[in-house]
């Protein structure tokens, strides 16, 4: 919204007419005292000269008034708006509308509109190269995660993770899983821990762009990569970081070296997969024994434990009252251990009616 400052076009301290007035008083006084015809003549001549000078000057001033559509720095509205760094398309069109409502349009207003449209075009170019700019409002290189609340997720949605345009999956580090996703020591463990030796290469899971690459609290040295479908992968406790924010990375590219920085009891990779900030259990769709991904499309949905992801082709069994792990495993021709593994849990847990278990 444009708030206009009244344009003070005749800002003067002392004008020519003030001077004429003063001279008149002076000459009248002289004339009254001396009755000198010479003085009178001189007065009239001076007055005439001053009239000529004033009319020429006034004309020039009018002329300069026209030109002052290009205001001085003090009056320039851009100075007023210099504090506004960002502007939306809506705000810009509103600005254009309010300028068009004015009787006269100042060059500075046009400059201002041009300035902001250039900024918007620049931002558009910047965003076009950035992964998932349709899903995330910004590519934040400061905040570690911006978490979309669960209730803002649709009941179910599918997300393609492997395709010709997205590329393949690369297992970031082959090794024994030392800690799974889920509750651990009264805290939620939002990733999978993979055993490694200090200095082992840690590689990128999917094509994307590095958003975070720095030392960050309990994560220690951490790299967070945003992928083109909106997934983000997290690689924590690194001894060395080999990328920087804004780097375009490909699946299989070296991100850093394994280590034990941050809150860690020994060298391991803490690996997370997130979508809109919500941590997903990677074991639901990545096999950490075969080191490969089990699906090309995920089903992302609400569950009792928050937002979760399954292979889109997974069949879910809805728990009925009286169902047990043993019965369900038997019905679908597998062991309880297999059923647990399929559901990304180590041990069977208490089943409640309405809950869903993956059965393939
Ligand atoms: Zn961990």
SS summary, helix count: 7
How many domains make up the 3D coordinates? 4
Please give the number of β-strands.
20
Q: What is the helical fraction, as a range of percent?
A: 25-40%
Shape label: elongated
**Overall pLDDT, averaged?**
83
Task: Indicate the CATH class of the largest domain.
Answer: Mainly Beta
CATH superfamily of the largest domain: Glucose Permease (Domain IIA)
Overview of the structural elements:
With 360 residues, the protein is α+β, with helices and mostly antiparallel strands. The protein has 4 domains: 16-67, no CATH class; 77-128; 146-302, Glucose Permease (Domain IIA) (Distorted Sandwich), CATH 2.70.70.10; 315-360, Roll (Membrane-bound Lytic Murein Transglycosylase D, Chain A), CATH 3.10.350. The protein is built from 7 helices and 20 strands. The chain has helices at residues 16-34, 37-67, 77-81, 89-100, 107-128, 325-331, 336-342; strands spanning 156-160, 177-179, 182-184, 187-189, 192-195, 201-203, 208-216, 220-227, 231-238, 240-241, 248-249, 254-257, 268-275, 278-280, 286-287, 292-293, 297-303, 306-311, 316-318, 356-358. The strands form 6 sheets. Strands 2, 5, 7, 8, 9, 11, 13 and 14 form an 8-stranded antiparallel beta sheet that branches. The protein has a 3-stranded antiparallel beta sheet with strand order 1-17-18, with no helix packed on it. Mean pLDDT is 83; it is low at 1-12 and 62-76. The structure holds zinc ion (ZN). Zinc ion is lined by residues 179, 189, 191, 193, 270.
Q: Which SSEs are present, and which pair or pack?
A:
Elements: H1 16-34, H2 37-67, H3 77-81, H4 89-100, H5 107-128, E1 156-160, E2 177-179, E3 182-184, E4 187-189, E5 192-195, E6 201-203, E7 208-216, E8 220-227, E9 231-238, E10 240-241, E11 248-249, E12 254-257, E13 268-275, E14 278-280, E15 286-287, E16 292-293, E17 297-303, E18 306-311, E19 316-318, H6 325-331, H7 336-342, E20 356-358
Antiparallel strand pairs: 1-17, 2-5, 3-4, 5-13, 6-12, 7-8, 7-11, 8-9, 9-13, 10-12, 13-14, 15-16, 17-18, 19-20
Helix pairs in contact: 1-2, 4-5
This protein binds zinc ion.
């Amino acid at each position: 919204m444009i708030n206009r400052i009244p344009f003070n076009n005749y800002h003067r301290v002392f004008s020519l007419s003030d001077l004429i007035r003063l001279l008149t008083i002076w000459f009248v006084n002289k004339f009254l005292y001396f009755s000198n015809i010479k003085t009178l003549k001189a007065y009239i001549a001076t007055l005439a000269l001053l009239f000529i000078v004033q009319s020429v000057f006034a004309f020039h001033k009018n002329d300069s008034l026209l030109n002052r559509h290009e205001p001085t720095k003090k009056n320039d509205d851009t100075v007023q708006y210099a504090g506004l760094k960002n502007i939306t398309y809506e705000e810009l069109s509103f600005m254009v509308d309010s300028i068009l409502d004015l009787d006269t349009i100042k060059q500075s207003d046009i400059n201002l509109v041009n300035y902001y449209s250039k900024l918007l075009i620049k931002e558009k170019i910047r965003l076009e190269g950035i992964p998932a700019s349709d899903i995330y409002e910004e590519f934040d290189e400061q905040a570690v995660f911006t978490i979309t609340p669960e209730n803002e997720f649709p009941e179910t949605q599918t997300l393609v993770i492997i395709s010709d345009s997205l590329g393949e999956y690369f297992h970031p580090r082959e090794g024994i899983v030392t800690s799974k996703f889920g509750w651990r020591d009264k805290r939620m463990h939002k990733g999978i821990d993979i055993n490694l030796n200090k200095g082992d290469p840690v590689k990128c899971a999917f094509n994307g762009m590095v958003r975070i690459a720095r030392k960050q609290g309990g994560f220690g040295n951490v790299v967070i990569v945003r992928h083109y479908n909106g997934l983000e992968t997290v690689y924590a406790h690194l001894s060395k970081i080999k990328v920087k924010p804004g780097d375009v990375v490909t699946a299989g590219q070296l991100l850093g070296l394994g280590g034990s920085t941050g809150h860690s009891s020994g060298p391991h990779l803490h690996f997370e997969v997130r979508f809109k900030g919500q941590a997903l259990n990677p074991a639901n769709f990545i096999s950490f024994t075969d080191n490969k991904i089990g699906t090309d499309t995920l089903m992302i949905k609400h569950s009792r434990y928050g937002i979760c992801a399954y292979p889109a082709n997974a069949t879910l069994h809805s728990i009925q009252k009286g169902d047990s792990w043993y019965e369900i495993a038997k019905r679908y021709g597998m062991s309880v251990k297999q059923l647990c593994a399929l559901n990304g849990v180590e041990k069977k847990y208490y089943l409640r009616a309405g809950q869903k278990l993956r059965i393939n």
